[in-house]
Specification:
Layout: E1 5-9, E2 11-13, E3 16-18, H1 21-29, E4 33-37, H2 43-52, E5 55-58, H3 82-98, E6 102-105, H4 107-115, E7 120-121, H5 124-127, E8 145-149, H6 154-159, E9 163-166, E10 173-174, E11 182-186, E12 192-196, E13 203-206, H7 218-232
Parallel strand pairs: 1-4, 1-5, 5-6, 6-13
Antiparallel strand pairs: 2-3, 7-10, 8-9, 8-11, 11-12, 12-13
Helix pairs in contact: 2-3, 3-4
């Protein structure tokens, strides 16, 4: 059986297209074939790439530019890449037309939200002070805080638990949620941890990093398995 081809939207750093290897390993482990979408695409090439792919992953990384949702940076913690924003904002509507599966992680959930008309908290410590360390000091393999999942969500259907432990490496989060999205999980301090589009066959975004823990966490393993299984149906 042909394995599903998974397009991963990664970063541009010092002139290099790159993505953390954990994303690719997680895809391979669950039966997919990952490839990195290079940053510079013509519209024609982007459409062909999307046509050939069976599923799409928007990975973590640098902040979304606040100008994309009508704000100026509030402090020097905000670090952006306009080229990445441009590519992801152009790609998402084209992907949505295909109804193919989408899994978005950390920055990915934020980028998708802005692309669809939502906004972000630019800096959680400044705008939403909390006792929870959303940018944890521990390594990615360690889950450090609780997330509570809505029992009516597809995410709950996949994971099967109302309360899970997750890792956390972000200082921004969803503020005004795009109309297409339903909030499906929050941390105890109210920070949005997951969304999904109920009108799409498979479009889930999570704020944590399951790519670090798919071998040790049933939560992460179930999420990746469900995504790759959905991609196999394309």
């Amino acid at each position: 059986m042909k394995k599903p081809l998974i397009a991963i939207f990664g970063s541009l750093e010092n002139g290099y297209d790159m993505v953390r290897i954990h994303y690719a390993k997680a895809v391979i482990h669950h039966g997919g074939v990952p490839f990195l979408v290079t940053m510079y695409q013509t519209e024609e090439n982007l459409k062909q790439l999307i046509e050939l792919s069976d599923g799409f992953m928007f990975a973590g990384g640098i902040d979304v530019d606040p100008k994309a949702y009508g704000e100026e940076p509030i402090n020097d913690t905000v670090d952006t890449c306009p080229d990445r924003d441009k590519l992801e904002f152009e790609a998402l509507p084209l992907i949505l037309e295909t109804k193919k599966p989408i899994l978005s992680i950390c920055r990915g959930i934020q980028s998708n939200n802005v692309a669809l008309g939502g906004t972000l908290y630019q800096d959680i410590p400044t705008q939403c002070p909390s006792d929870i360390a959303h940018r944890q000091k521990e390594a990615g393999e360690f889950d450090t805080h609780e997330v509570r999942i809505d029992k009516s969500s597809k995410l709950f259907e996949i994971i099967g638990d109302e309360t899970v432990m997750t890792n956390s490496f972000h200082h921004q989060s969803l503020k005004d949620v795009a109309k297409a999205f339903t909030v499906t999980a929050k941390s105890p301090d109210g920070i949005i941890e997951a969304v999904e589009d109920s009108q799409h066959p498979y479009f889930i975004g999570v704020q944590w990093h399951p790519e670090f823990t798919y071998e040790t966490s049933s939560t992460s393993a179930k999420l990746f398995k469900s995504f790759i299984d959905a991609c196999k149906k394309q």
